Amino acid sequence: MREGEAGAGTRVGRIVEVEAYIGEDDQASHARFGRTSRNAVMFGPPGIAYVYLVYGMHECLNLVTEPEGRAAAVLIRAVDPVAGVAAMRAARLAHALRRARTSEARARAEARIGDLAPARLAAGPGLVAAAFGIDREKTGVDLLDPTSSVRIEPADATEPPARITQTARIGIGYAAEPWRSHAWRFIDAGSQALSIA
DNA sequence: AGTTGGATGGTCT
DNA sequence: GACCATCCAACTG
Question: What are the CB-based long-range contacts (under 8 Å, 24+) for A102-105?
Fold first, then answer.
């Protein structure tokens, strides 16, 4: 995953955790209510960004996957930084400071984020968006277009292959079976950047 | 080290 | 009016 022009400050990371949300039948998917104004891009062509707000404060980036007419997307849950660590840390800090009301809270956020290991900067869906400066305005962006501000690329051939493991999806306890238990979370096992070890 | 509860606003019944 | 595809601080033991 890559953000910004080539050069200093560009943010690059390896996607190490994703979840699949497949079809209107999937009782954990935003598409379970059919097409709405929020989820409309999920019903469109693949390769497009779907960014939504959860819990009133965290944005989450998805990649639309199935052909037009079939609602599906992959949630990007964690990214291991490869380049642009300073820019990610700055974006995380800016995000935290926007919410911190007291000077004590600001000081705590500054210390905490300043001490964060690079692998922890984007270790969660809300953190991916915060670290890469992504919000709902990115909905509709073509993530496969090399000229887009944010894009997703194939792994570099020199990278070691991922050791991929599956688990149930996170935070969907409201969904009925069998959807709740489908092992549709995919992780690069052993990565230090996972949202949950 | 694991658990619990608060923040905060858009979306859907 | 209820509920969330979350994160973090403040507790417990």
Answer: none
A145-173 confidence digits (pLDDT tens):
999 999 999 998 888 899 999 999 999 99
Residue A36, CB, strand B, below 7 Å: yes
**Nucleic strand B near CB of residue A39 (< 7 Å):** yes
CA distances from A123 to A25, A77, A93, A180 (A): 29, 7, 15, 22
For residue A190, the tally of other CB atoms under 10 A from its CB is: 11
Task: Take residue A185 and report the two structure tokens written for it.
Answer: 């979370």
Strand C bases contacted by the protein (CB, 7 Å): 3-9
Helix ranges (H only) for chain A are 85-99, 103-114, 125-132
- In percent, the amount of chain A with pLDDT more than 90 equals 91
- Cβ atoms of residues A13 and A188 within 8 Å: no
Give the pLDDT of residue A197. Answer: 82
Cβ of A98 near strand B (distance < 7 A): no
For A56 and B4, how far is CA from C1' in angstroms?
20
Residue A53: name the closest of A151, A169, A135, A149 by CA: A135
CA→C1' distance for A102 and B1 (Å): 29
Cβ of A97 near strand B (under 7 Å)? The reply is no
- pLDDT, tens digit, for every residue of A92-136? 999 999 999 899 999 999 999 999 999 999 999 999 999 999 999
